[in-house]
Every structure is written in structure tokens, then in C-alpha cells.
């Protein structure tokens, strides 16, 4: 289906020259003088090559219809990441470059949204938050109240983040899967 370039968003899939591209970022630029343009960064699904295109905001681009479905994460191996559709038990393999920076946050049984084109996964959406354990951080400072000073910590998935001073090693915390930032202490 043809749509104007200014309506394209991250995660959309476009067809160009017979190849499919997933949009990594889309920005509409309105210079003081001249024509407004849409700057779109895309990754070719077939081989992972990244390209950057600039369109006039009124140019027509071919948007491919994508089906979004929930899948449970099973495991990772040398070939990629494996997910299962909970109702039909169909398994799907997703390439490492599609999962990208989301990989450390995947936990066994976690329900994610996969954007599917035919039988190929083109994008993944994780839950907004994940609960992980702090495996390494500086010791708790007695008497220090929750101030704006954060200290470095390493989580059970290997990601480094900043945590408040009262969080010690072994504490389970909730982080945003988008950037690994601390949200709160886990309530379990």
C-alpha cells in the first residue's frame, strides 16, 4: 500500500526495488527554507545492510502490511533466537540482527511481539520492563538517603546500569528494556 513518506515510523516495513526494509528511525525535517524532507534509516531484511534515504515528505513509498503476534522466547543457539507461538505451538527462528540490542533482556518464557511478513520475523518488541538481579555493585552506604547520586552496577544479564545507593548486590530490580535504566526495586 502506498503512503506518504512523512507517515513512516520506526518498525514499519517498506518495499523498495523489490526488496524489504525495516525502518530503524524516521525523522521529519522542516528547514526554515526549502522543502520539508523525511530522513529514513532502514535495514534490508535479506542481508542486514543498513541504508539511509531522504524523501520529500509528500513522496509516496510502498509500505508492506505486517502481522504482529505474541510469541514466547524459548532459547538462543548458534543459528539465532527461537520463539514459540502460544496457541499453535509453531516455532519461529529469528536472526540475531533482528533482535539486536534487545538480546540481553530476553528471558526464558518472556512474551514478546514479533512483526511477521509471511513467515519471516522483521522486528521484535519486548515488554517495557524486565526484572533482573544486581550481581556486582559498590557496598551499601549506611545513612545515605535516596539522593540524586547513583552508583554503577552490573546486572545478571551482563548489562551495566546506574542504581541508587541503597541497592546492594543480590537485590532484584526492575529496568527499562529500551536502555537498561533503573526503575524500582522488584516487589517479589
Shape: flat
What is the helix fraction of residues, given as a range?
under 10%
Strand count, sense and closure of the main sheet? 6 strands, antiparallel
Number of domains: 3
Average of pLDDT: 87
Low-confidence stretches: none
The quaternary structure here is: single chain
Note the beta-strand portion. Answer: over 45%
The CATH class of the largest domain is identified as: Mainly Beta
CATH architecture of the largest domain: Roll
Number of separate helices: 1
Number of strands: 16
Order of helices and strands: EEEEEEEEEHEEEEEEE
Instruction: Give, in spatial order, the strands making up the sheet with the most strands.
Output: 1-6-2-3-4-5
CATH fold topology of the largest domain: SH3 type barrels
First-to-last CA distance: 47 Å
Rg result = 20 Å
Helix/strand-derived category reads mainly beta
Verbal overview:
Residues 68-122 form the Translation elongation factor P/YeiP central domain. It is found in: Cytoplasm. One of its GO terms (biological process) is peptide biosynthetic process. Belongs to the elongation factor P family. Pfam families: EFP, EFP_N, Elong-fact-P_C. There is one protein chain. By secondary structure, the protein is mostly beta strands. The protein has 3 domains: 2-64, SH3 type barrels (Roll), CATH 2.30.30.30; 68-125, OB fold (Dihydrolipoamide Acetyltransferase, E2P) (Beta Barrel), CATH 2.40.50.140; 129-185, OB fold (Dihydrolipoamide Acetyltransferase, E2P), CATH 2.40.50.140. The protein has 1 helix and 16 strands. It has one helix spanning 96-99; strands at 2-4, 13-16, 19-29, 37-44, 50-56, 60-63, 67-77, 80-84, 91-94, 111-117, 120-125, 129-137, 151-155, 160-163, 172-176, 182-185. The chain has a 6-stranded antiparallel β-sheet with strand order 1-6-2-3-4-5, with no helix packed on it. Strands 9-8-7-10-11 form a 5-stranded antiparallel β-sheet. A 5-stranded antiparallel β-sheet has the order 14-13-12-15-16, with no helix packed on it. A hairpin with a 5-residue loop joins strand 15 (172-176) and strand 16 (182-185). The longest helix has 4 residues, at 96-99. The chain starts with a strand and ends with a strand. The mean pLDDT is 87.
Amino acid at each position: 500500500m502506498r503512503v506518504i513518506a512523512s507517515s513512516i515510523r520506526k518498525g514499519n516495513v517498506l518495499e523498495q526495488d523489490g526488496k524489504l526494509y525495516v525502518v530503524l528511525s524516521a525523522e521529519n525535517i522542516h528547514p526554515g527554507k526549502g522543502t520539508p524532507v523525511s530522513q529514513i534509516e532502514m535495514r534490508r531484511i535479506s542481508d542486514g545492510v543498513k541504508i539511509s534515504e531522504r524523501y520529500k515528505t509528500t513522496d509516496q513509498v510502498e509500505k508492506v502490511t505486517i502481522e504482529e503476534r505474541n510469541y514466547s522466547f524459548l532459547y538462543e543457539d548458534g543459528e539465532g533466537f527461537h520463539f514459540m507461538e502460544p496457541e499453535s505451538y509453531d516455532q519461529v527462528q529469528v536472526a540475531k540482527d533482528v533482535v539486536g540490542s534487545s538480546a540481553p533482556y530476553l528471558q526464558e518464557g518472556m512474551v514478546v511481539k514479533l512483526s511477521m511478513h509471511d513467515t519471516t520475523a522483521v522486528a521484535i518488541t519486548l515488554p517495557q520492563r524486565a526484572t533482573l538481579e544486581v550481581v556486582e555493585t559498590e557496598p551499601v552506604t549506611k545513612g545515605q538517603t535516596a539522593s540524586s547520586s547513583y552508583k554503577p552496577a552490573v546486572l545478571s544479564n551482563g548489562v551495566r546500569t546506574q542504581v541508587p545507593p541503597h541497592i546492594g548486590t543480590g537485590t532484584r530490580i526492575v529496568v527499562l528494556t529500551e536502555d537498561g535504566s533503573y526503575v524500582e526495586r522488584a516487589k517479589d
